[in-house]
User: What shape does this take?
Amino acid sequence: MSMNPAQVEFLAENQTIQITPNFSHDRLYLICGEVGPFRPGIPVQVPLWMAINLKQRQKCRITAPEWMTVETLVKIKEDEGQSKTFTPMPDEHYMVTTQLILGAAPHDIANTDEIRILVKDIWDMRIAKLRSSVDAFLKIGGSLAKVDHLTLMEINTVRPFLPHALDQLFRLRQEKNSTYNQTQ
Amino acid sequence: MYVSDLKREFYDVILGKRVLIFVNFDVDAIASCRILQYLLLCDSISYSIIPVQNQNDLISAYKESCEQSNHVILINCGGTLDIVEHLEPTEEKVFFIADSHRPYDVCNIYNDGQVCLLGKSSEKEEIPSYEDIFGNDDDNDETSDHLDGEESDEEVDEEGDEEEIRESKSKRQKLDPAEMVMRRREKRLWHEKRKEILFNYMQFSFYSSSTALLMFELAWKLSRDSNDLLWWAIIGVGEQQLLGKVDSKTSVLDNGKLQSHMIRLAHLSQHGGDSAGTKDALYITHEKDLSLSMYRHWSLLESLKYTPQTASHFHLWTLKGEKKLNEFLAELGLPLSQCRQKYNSMDIELRNDLRSIFQKKVEKYDLEDLIEYSFNSQYGFRPKNSASDFVFALLALLDSAERDKDPADAFHDALECLSNSKMDAVYRGIELAKLQQMAIGKEVHTCLDMGHVINAGPCLYAVIQDGTPDAKYYGHPHSLLMLGQFLLKAHISRARGRGLRARELPLIISSPSATRPSHCLLLGLPPLSLDSPKNLIGKAFEQAAENTQTEITSVFFDSSVIEINSEFRSNFLDSLFSLLE
Assistant: This one.
């Protein structure tokens, strides 16, 4: 069983982010916690889904998360390129957050085009590493592997395929062993 | 009454309530409706949009849906109607009218609270004062019953009533016949003066500044403006200029306002010093451009052929004219094979320099107005579009309502064009618009060749016969307007000598209606020499209809277009000509 991207996005939207509202409202008591009070010009922490909704209704300005700058991302990209294993990502849902924020509030963030390019490059590198490591794992025929620092979205690109493939291999091996035993 | 503080007296009133929106079938109304829709969505105000084509539609649609809400917004419809009389609303209903048609009905202007006109009153509309029309009824006694006091009974001043009744009752015993006669005479004179004032006021029908611009300024006051909204406002204003509905002074003022908004928004989106922002958004520019119809989506030659200015200038319905056009292109240095190709496949050096190439030769050929400032937009890396492309596309989609296609569908197709960054609907509209312009061009060609434009003394008239193929392309008010303007320009350009008098004659054009098979549309255009879009044909139509007892099946909000049954057309035209003399 796997999760499709929409579900991962739903989970990612629960993260908090800082916004500056332009309206006034009292504290809101939501199921996931309380938010507010909102005062114009005063930054406040809200869940990402609420920030996106308010932005679309032109009621706030979004502040970019600290890792969403060109310098940080360039450094992360270099680290990722040099290490053979996966490096820790600044944010568990970096891909989703980037897409959502840059889609809804392009004018609030500086250098949006470059950031988009950098995040896509990091993503491509990590997926390529994941694929080659899965490939190597299957070739060796190992039975245990441990990977660190993978984000949920990346895991879900291989999730339906990998266990299913290993399952098939196991069954084929079983068949091979049993026929071997029989012919003995 | 006029409401000039849009935020406090209009928007704050409808916050939290449910609204009903009636929208007319024209591009300006659609653009304003879209802007308003965006604002309502931002504040989660629930609304229903009902498109209406003419007065009967408005009245029947209102009757069906009046229970839904107490606040009704009318966009580009209803300003020239007496709302209270025609729609018969109950006490709690409030109407907000944003209409660019003028003149406003006096009952709407002087209504107290129930009918609110969004915008300001301007000097040049010459609204008659309250006393001239309603006040001054100091004889609210029984003598008024003897006269045909239909008017005085309605506009009676409520507070003055009772006292005057008591007064007049006491006076009645003292009145002798001579005084009564004097009073009656005074009253009659007052009524005649009132009729004359009203007649002068309602005589000319014209347009004022665009409603879309009004809605955009509301969005600006609410700090909800953005490039998308500005683009829609530009389209609304562009329609008025393309169809010649406003004079050049108003259009210059409107363009100036739009430009200042554009510059302001461009500065806002420039985040910080050297970061260029994102490419993936809507960018609007105001630059000198060729004013050929849809030339970016057509081949240059066809665009030159079907734009009214160039076609009339070169007389492109004759062989000689076509040769002249080829000469012109040769002098510009544009090879014919390139001009015949679709614009996007032309040589890139030619495309980039097109404007400067034309600039060099327009003076010699007297085509100065071919190069004008226009608004262009570009979304991300997609090809540029000009505002007039959008106007053409929307007009074509609106007019695609035929017998078997519901007008409401056509309306929603057009509304879809204005949604953010979805270009399929726009391209479909542009294809339709090309067909429409070709049909109009060919019809003008036929009319001029066969001499369908007849000088009937006080005016020119042209009748397009039923059963003309392609008649469906101009059987609607706006496309008929385009056809009429093209025809008038072309006819005048052909006239010389005695025919020059034709410049001072208005044009009446009739075409079979595309929505109702046995009816025809009649449109009146003011003469070219006047250079002002004020049109008195609407009143003439009404008068002629009364004289001949013809029933006008559709009364459009623009009074210069009406629809009548084709059988009565000749009678109607005869009485119209006798009126215009």
Notes: Chain B touches chain A at residues 41-43, 223-224, 226, 268-269, 271-272, 275-281 (CB under 8 Å).
